[in-house]
Write a structure and sequence with these properties.
Strand content: 5-15%
Number of helices: 17
Helix content: 40-55%
Oligomer: single chain
Largest sheet: 5 strands, antiparallel
Length: 423
């Protein structure tokens, strides 16, 4: 008996008259679709029951932890075990003793510079000691203060000084007035011009400008100049840093000669061949008034450029004998001092040759007590600790003022020889 199927073809027989198959592809696809729907429908209750069954143990476990079942009669209630110790988390310690201190700003630095303005040696040295002790906090502020914009001021002042000889009267008048308007920042440079200018009119105009600046009483500029002198001097005691060297090189353009002197000596301790080249150029172009300080710094500066320049100057006899002997001693203080001295033993200048062969007293010898008299009638005494260029080093320094003696808590102090009234 032939069974009729609900074929999607036009034929209703078991054997499809359209495609010739007993079960055409369309009938098979229809049957397969109905089977899939039936299977999915039958699985839904099974999956639901499975989820409920797996959730029951977790819920029961949570219930037991939250509320343990009551103990049966005759059984003691179990005591809870010791709680597991949770690991401690590291929390930031906000206590002031462990908080990282912040670097000083300009205002904080100013509060520590007041000792530089009093003119008292003891206060000055105590201020210097504080800055050296706090240099990790104060370094950035000190570098920025020393660096400044000195080249801009120097170029302007030099241009105005040149205009004092202009052929036009109105230009000379304006230059004199502009020099006065710059104020105390340029006073020392103008004062030098008043003494050394080649023409009488230049000297007269520069002297008038100095007098006008003094009458104006620019206290702010004077205070800033004293602060900068102290900071440039402090740089000789600071730890070496590329930023410090860059700041010192910039300050060579300052209008205050004492600031420039301090920076040159500090470069002698912290600088290298690049700074030596700059100092040599500075010496041959605009640093004639700092010649002895520059050569002393070059003699002890790291590298070979400064050393070789000084040796050549000594061999050719271009340096005065007194300074030449001091430079020979400075060269001896170097690590390669013996090698350098051997190059000068045959120098044509007898004083240089003798100084090169002389064994100078060093800090490793039996320490001797040294006393230095300063311009303010203060005496500093301590143990001889050697030289660096044109500076004398004193260990365990004590400041003597009248009957009072004060120990300065620093390993050593360094004094420029040309700033001492007596040794």
């Amino acid at each position: 008996m032939t069974t009729k199927l609900s074929c999607l073809c036009s034929s209703a027989e078991a054997r499809c008259t359209g495609c010739g198959a007993f079960r055409c592809a369309k009938v098979q696809r229809q049957a397969l679709g109905r089977a899939r729907v039936a299977t999915a429908g039958s699985l839904i209750p099974v999956l639901t029951a499975l989820l409920v069954w797996t959730a029951q143990p977790a819920a029961a476990q949570a219930t037991e932890k939250a509320d343990p079942p009551p103990a049966k009669q005759g059984e003691s209630t179990p005591k809870p075990g010791p709680a597991k110790e949770q690991p401690k988390q590291d929390k930031p310690d906000d206590s002031p003793t462990t908080a990282k201190p912040s670097d000083w700003g300009a205002e904080e630095l100013d509060r520590h510079l007041k000792g530089f303005k009093d003119g008292d040696t003891l206060t000055y040295l105590q201020t210097l000691r504080t800055l050296v002790e706090k240099q990790k906090l104060a370094a950035t502020a000190i570098y920025n203060r020393i660096h400044g914009n000195h080249a801009e001021y120097l170029l302007r002042v030099e241009k105005l000084l040149d205009e004092l000889t202009d052929e036009r009267w109105e230009v000379r008048e304006r230059a004199e007035k502009d020099l006065i308007s710059i104020g105390a920042k340029a006073r020392l440079l103008i004062q030098q011009h008043a003494k050394s200018a080649p023409t009488i009119e230049e000297r007269i105009r520069a002297a008038r400008a100095v007098t006008a600046i003094d009458l104006a009483g620019d206290d702010k500029e004077k205070l800033e100049r004293m602060y900068l002198r102290g900071l440039a001097h402090t740089a000789l005691y600071l730890d070496g840093s590329p930023k410090l060297v860059k700041a010192l090189a910039s300050a060579l353009q300052h209008t205050d000669p004492l600031v420039v002197d301090h920076c040159i000596r500090a470069l002698g301790r912290h600088g290298g061949d690049d700074e030596a080249k700059r100092l040599i150029k500075f010496l041959t172009t605009e640093g004639t008034s700092h010649g002895d300080t520059v050569r002393a710094a070059l003699a002890v500066m790291g590298g070979t450029v400064g050393r070789d320049y000084v040796v050549e100057q000594l061999r050719t006899g271009k340096i005065q004998e007194t300074e030449a002997v001091l430079l020979c001693r400075a060269l001896r203080e170097r690590k390669d001092g013996e090698e350098v001295a051997s190059k000068l033993t045959a120098a044509p200048n007898a004083a240089v040759a003798t100084a090169a062969r002389t064994r100078w007293e060093s800090s490793s010898d039996a320490p001797r007590t040294v006393r230095i008299a300063l311009p303010d009638q203060t005496t500093v005494e301590g143990k001889f600790a050697g030289y660096l260029g044109d500076t004398l080093h004193i260990a365990q320094p004590v400041v003597v003022k009248g009957m009072n003696k004060t120990l300065i808590s620093m390993p050593e102090l360094r004094f420029a020889l040309n700033r001492c009234d007596g040794i």
